[in-house]
User: Fold this.
Amino acid sequence: MNPIPLFHIGDFLLVSIPEDLSDSMVTRLQDSLSRKVIKLQIKGVLLDLSSVTIVDSFIGRMLGNMASITAMLGAEAIIVGIQPAIAITMIELGLGLNNIKTALNVDQGVIMLQILAADKAIDYVSKQ
Amino acid sequence: MSVSSKVLPMRTEEDLMIVRQTVKAWMIEQEFSLLEQTKLVTAISEIGRNALVYGGGGSALLEQLLENCRVGIRVTIEDQGPGIADIEQALQDAYSTGNGLGFGLSGAKRLVMDFDICSKPGQGTRIKMTVWN
Assistant:
């Protein structure tokens, strides 16, 4: 199976998660995403779920892990584009994605990343 | 009654994806809502993964049902693994023997209209999930 493509836009990475995911695809994505964040000095990652038709407990846990790993590497992570049917199913399953930032779509996610990155920069400068 | 059925293997991750895709195609054909499609396919994913990881693989029986003009879909996932000793406990939220979140069985049960589990230690596990449109 082809790896999931990671698009590099400015300081950000956009990950367009495909419609139907296998466990091994998600596991490989976790690895390639974290390496790319470091290599390209990424400040923010958008995980776009708008094409995804299923998020089960394994995929949900991996998405949460990817957001946490990205945060540990000093970048912001935002999950965008969750469809209503996926949101309802995830909640009924017991997957709340707590402590993870979300936005409606890629456009709003980019704006959110820019604000978060700017806040971080201001915070950093003010402490110097 | 069952109007058509299909048995698919459940030995690999790819098999599980084929089962998910086949059920989704049937549900689209029978005009189930997107939410109903998502719920059943997610439940299949949870139960199918259990069969692969803990049960060492097995099979999936897919049936299209017709009862008093109502159409339904039943998915029976079976494995010949170690089975479940305490089904009540396994159906509790946050119960897991593996590295999952423990929502597998209980979560899948919440996502379908009818959930039937038959398992005995040493004799494998069979789970039937049914939804009606």
